[in-house]
Structure formats: C-alpha cells, structure tokens
C-alpha cells in the first residue's frame, strides 16, 4: 500500500520530435479515473469537491425541464431511501439471527418433539401440560439422553447429555470456521476495528461485500450457538455496514463517491447497534463517539432514521416473544441511595482493571498468533478453544446457558414469582407479599450455592474470553464483557444486601434501610457492573450510558451508570489510553490517525521525503515529459502519485497527479486517440507546447491534474501537519518554500513519525 512518497528521479528524454493534431480526449470523463486501488487511502478533499460539482450540475439542469427537476428530487431523496432499506434489512437479519441462535443454543441440550424448529421456551409455550412452577419442563421437550435411553436423572444420562453438548458445540464451531476460511475470510472477528479504519478513509475491498454479508450472518449464528464466550453485537455492526454498502451500489451518488459512501456506512453502524441492543439513540451516539471519523449533521439525522427503522423492524419480528428488542430488558422499582455510590464506584474500578487486563492479555495472544506457527492452524485453534469452553461450561448451570440468558437472569430483580436459584431467600412466614416490593430477606442455601457457581463462572469467563476474541470466526465483545461485569455486580449486590439486612443498625444503613424494607436491588448492581466492564474494554462513555438506560427503561439509574462508566474509563486510561478496537487497529497496522494530541516539537522538514542522502523526488514536468518517461516512472516506482513542476531546474509546483489516473489516462489514450506513441509529449498546461512539426501528437492530461494540492512550508510544526491530516483526511501533503517544491509528507510518513516519537518500531505499525 505504497503512498506517494516519491524519492527516485526520472530522466526526461531531451530530444523530442514531431507534433500533430491536439485533442484533449479527457474532455469526456474516463471510467475509473478518480477511483482507488485496494488498501489505499481516499482523498477526502477530492471526494468532497467532486460531490459539490455533481450537485451543482444537477441543480443547474433541474431548471431546464420537468424531467430533470424530478431527477433532482430523486437524487435528494436517495439518501433517505438508502437509510430506509438499511434499517429494514439489518432489522430483519438481526431478528432472524436472534431466532436461529435461540433454537440452535437449545439444540445442544435437547429437541422439541412436537416441532423440532421450536426452541425450549417456544416448545413449552405451546404445550397444554406446562405448569407455572415447572415452566421449563414439558413432555414435548426432551433432552437427548431422555430421547435416546428413556432415562432422565441417572449418571449415564448426565454423561450422555454432557458428551452431546460438547459434540454439538464442536460441530457448530467447526462449521463456522470452515465457512469463514473457504468463502469469506473477512467475516471473522468483530469487524469494528476494520469499520473504524474504513470510515477513516481506508479502502479494504470485499470487507463489506455480498459474500461477507451472507457468510457473516450464517457463521455468527453458528459461533454464538456453539457456546463460545463471544457476542453478536459487534458483528451486527459489520452486518449492518455490509447492508449499507450493498445499497450504496444501487445509487451512483454513493457508489462513485467514497466520501459519500462513508456517510452511509456511519449511519449503518448506528442501525447495527440499534438492533443489537434495542437502543436507537445509543446506536447513533455509538456511531458518533466510537466508529465515525467524519460525521456531519446530515449524517446524524440519517443515522437516527436508519436506527429507528431497524429497531421498528426488529420489534415487528419480536424474536424474544416479550415485545422487547433484547432478551435482558429489565425494570426496577426501588430507588437507589447515595451510600450505594461507593460500591458502584468500586465496580467502576473493577471494570477499568478488567478492561486493562483483557486488552493486554488479548493483544499479547493475538500478537503471538500472528508471529508464531499458531496462526497457521485457525481451524484447530477454534476446535480446541470450543472443546475447552464446552467441557468446562457444562457442569456449571450459569456457564452452560447462553450468555444473553445469563445476563438476563443476573439483571432480574427477585420478584414473588421468580424460580431462579439466585432468589432462594428465606421468607418470613408472617410476611404479606406485595407484588413488587419484597423486603430484604436472609439468603437461603440456594443463594450461597449460586454465589459459588457465579464466582467460578467469573474466573472462567475472564480467562476464556481473552483467548476467544480474535479467532477466525465472528466474535463480538460486548456480551462477554457485560457478563463479566454482571456476575461481579450481582455478587457485590448480594453482599451489600445481606450486610444491610444483618447490620441495619450500622451508621451507613441506618438512614435509608429500615428493617422490613426493600433497600438493595442486586440486579441494579449487575447492570452497573456490566456497564463498567464494557466501558473498561471499549472506553465508551456517553453512548454506553445511553445504551444501558435504553436497555433498562429507567432514567433514575443514570447517575450510578455514569459514575461507574467514568470511573472505569479513568482507571483503564491510567494504564493505557487505547481501547480494544484501537489496540487491534494498531496490531494490524491499519493507517488510522487517532484523535490523541500530538505534543512533540518537530517540523515538516524533519518528516518529509526525500531525506538527506536519498535520491531526489520523482516529479513530472508540465510540458517536457514523454509518454515513455511517464510509463518508465510508473514501472520503476510504486508511489501513489507524482508532483508536477514547471521544470526540473525551477522546481516550481503546478499540481499533483495520481498514479492510478495516469495509468488509466495513458492506456485509454493509446486505445482511442490516434498518433499517441511512446515519444509523444505529455503536457498538463492549458495550451500545447511549441513543438517541431515532425513530433508525434502530444497528449493533454490537464483534466486529471489536481491544481490545488495541499501544501505546507518546511517550517510548519508537525503538530499542525498532524491536525491537518486528521481533520481534512489527507493522503499526502506537499512541502514547499517560496513556491519551490522541497518534498512530500504522506499519511504513512505521519504514522511512522508518531510511532518513532512514542519509541515504537515505525515499520511494525505499517499495514502488511
């Protein structure tokens, strides 16, 4: 992915003969001129000006006839149409994924005899023999051992169920990794680091293609159903962006302009989070805070519309049967008290420490995968991790079920009708039972048993997630992070609740916790813990709090959530500024300029190429270079473009021409324009140069010349240069002194320089 770094020099042919008819064959736009090659960075300024020109033309034409006016209206509405289509498709796919995951997760344990496509819950809904107390048991749903041997409780039945659980998990994960490897290698992982890079202006062809969309959707279901410690939320953002890219190709306004396409992809990312969490506003804020690079006000509106349509579509499908968009929607009825901010902040500290541990552990493991033999056996790695996960998960009821169900149970408040082990409190026989407001009670044996199991589940989740994220299957990080936090939060919540019950005369409980009152909600602690851990890993703040309160429907819990999110970010930032996505971007060497301050006192002249002892800059002259010279220069160098100067002696800058545009223009001229041969003169001026009559016909390429390339002087501080690259999305910037060309700075040069300033190996951060 060579950027324009021009270093070597090309000798012009001194003698040129002949001149013929002059013709600027580029008066008509050429196909593919102005497009980009794979793994190159787009030129945001050029894309913006091209869109402005296109818009001006449409506006002028719209006054000519009714038909042109209708076309201009269609063009104006195309953005909203694309948003509508993205919302409909991503909402539908999310609903299908949710239903399929539900069924296939239950398939590991048993099957519904009345209709094999029903999940456990759906099977028992339709049964007339289900009682409320045993709502999980019905004759239509049979575990595999019961179906095969007729026994349900024997040791042999347990072993058989255990064996089949592991076998199904291995089958699902093997199928997922095989499909990814054979059909769509880009469908692995979360997708958010790559989408952040693409939205910053990098081109990765095929990453958002049709095959990637299809395979990611199918393998996401398989990966989540296999019981691995991963979620579907991050990959749903990738799926939604694939939908956005698919619909962009229907409208030339977006398919031919990479800058406009990225506006659509920003909105698609919002729709992805909207269906992942049932949080349309949180989705828009996530796109703005976490993934987008360029987010104009117009995109904000359109993101909101796409997220709304996606959420509405998912609500219409109703995949969980609870008229909610997520499985773990909860409502709490008791207020929180100021003294509880202490455990909430402690959960924030835990979230920050977990985030730091996870990022360091996961990046170390992924680096090992890249640099050792381990990376050559992706299928074996997935099989081994799935096997270990399934074998360790089955004995513990909290790790055996799907992570979403686990989070749902941890978030839930213990009502009068709850049958969960976590709600096995000792009831006072004289107590009257209102529906919601059950007073704090002493914990029963079931709660203590559950606490031990949760503690083991916490250790298991912390360790296994480090090795799972980054394997060659679709894997999200939101749900495992939330599970770690929810388990820790629930344990803390039960501890605080029992302290308040047994020591209500202590000064901290005296003011707000009377005997017989419902003081502490352990489910709220689980929710705060989940937010803290997710914040520690991703470093989200505002969007995280909004997503969490959209999940719970409770505005009064914003302060605990904010306290935990801010604390976790502070603690995690104390150990390193990078979130998990930025860390993976750096590990893969994507050319992504993050928003951190550049504080070093270097100048443009310290960074520009060519340096001392390097060959001079590769340049083209405005009217004395031949076609052969240009082709030789293109063949011998791999730079992304070339500055055009008046002459080699004066080095006065005229403009900049892209390598790809040059190749296409010369190829086209040789095919379509008579008289263009190797020693034809290429000129970039308005008028043809004075040439002898015997010379072959010259070739005018002024149309592909950028007459206003971005330039800085050699004494511009690098702080300013970095800011310019970041805010304008430049590919390269020319360095001049008094109009004379001195050198060039590319995005790669800036990234290398920033790495050097942070004492990192500048080559290790480059995309390979």
Quote the CATH topology of the largest domain: Clc chloride channel
Major sheet: arrangement of strands: 3-5-6-9
The number of distinct helices, counting runs of at least 4 residues, comes to 28
Query: At CATH's second level, what is the architecture of the largest domain?
Result: Orthogonal Bundle
How far is it from the N-terminal to the C-terminal residue, by CA? 8 Å
Proportion in helices:
40-55%
- Compute the number of structural domains: 3
Based on CA atoms alone, the radius of gyration comes out at 31 Å
CATH superfamily of the largest domain: Clc chloride channel
Quote the average pLDDT: 85
Strand segment tally: 12
Strand portion = 5-15%
Largest sheet, if any? 4 strands, mixed
CATH class of the largest domain: Mainly Alpha
Judged by helices, strands and strand pairing, the structural class is: mainly alpha
The coarse overall form would be elongated
